[in-house]
Amino acid sequence: MFAKGQTVIQYMEGLAPKHVAMEGDKIGLQLGTLQKEITGILVALDVNEEVVDEAIAKGANLIVAHHAIIYRPLAQLQVDTPMGKVYEKLIKNDIAVYISHTNLDITEGGMNDWMAEELGIEVTGSIEDLHSDQLYKLVVFVPKEQADSVRAAILDAGAGHIGNYSHCSFNIEGSGTFKPDELANPYIGQAGKLEQVQEVRIETMVPHSIKNKVVAAMLKAHPYEEVAYDLYAMELKGRTLGLGRVGKLSDPVDLATLVERVKHKFDVPTVRVVGDMNRVIKKAAVLGGSGGGYWKKALRCGADVLVTGDIDYHTAQDAYMAGITLIDPGHNAEKLMKPRVAAFLAQKLEKDKYSTPVYASTINTEPFRFV
């Protein structure tokens, strides 16, 4: 059984929620429809004609890409232009294109965490914080006999995370009262009769990003026809997400060694480097894509080096004089997202018993040639 398009996108937005994207970023469905069965998924960094041909050859009717194919409103759609041919081929072959860009960069367990992991950076924070997840206190009253199952449903849905601890809750036993009216269909008790039931008050914390999911799981598991629960905002903030990642290297190395690691891990033939190759690097920052403009913030975070793409000449000069080293592996280094997103989607589909295949694109979309 093939997965529906909306099902696949629910998986993607579980990994990279749309609300964490940078304002104005061109993400989401950019071409085609998701109201269909997905016969195959191709995960790509960029979408060009070669990538579309690859999707056709593999029978994929959905491309999940990192970089948008439509950056600004189209005044016309001429199919005799290079990009117009790509749009035409996508439409004629009923291939949808879905974009996950800065939301995939920013999200926990996304692009910048992958880059940091590859380089051996023990992440302690972001280069620039953008989002703090609002925390809510969820309180629900459950018959004592069903408390364990309802609590498990709530916590398994993601509630109750405090730092490095999961499944955190507080529980108090007490007595609940209610009187069902003549229209009620009570789980316990009789219409018109006041009931007194031994209940457990379960309290836990829920981030805004999964609030609806947790409440739905609670309601599904709860035996009562009308569930008594409270949900209120807390002053305490949850996890913070932002651009880039910064942290200590698991083992300090000189810049020359880190350069070779970047080339190997990001599969790039060359990099551009600013700084003394003998300098010992203890703390590093990474930012996928074009992050040269964030070198000052990386420096304020205490980073000895910033690894990012598309650094311009004057930025390099300024950073050199300020004392931070730079490694530029190019924008195409972000291709490391292809196997990881493909593996994530394949795992989700297999778990839910869908037969939709997922492929990581093998097309090299690097526009530069190194000679």
From TrEMBL:
Keywords: Metal-binding. InterPro entries: DUF34/NIF3, DUF34/NIF3_bac, DUF34/NIF3_sf, N-reg_PII/ATP_PRibTrfase_C. It comes from the Bacteria. The keyword Lipid biosynthesis does not apply. Belongs to the GTP cyclohydrolase I type 2/NIF3 family. This is GTP cyclohydrolase 1 type 2 homolog. It comes from Paenibacillus turicensis. The lineage of its organism: Bacteria, Bacillati, Bacillota, Bacilli, Bacillales.
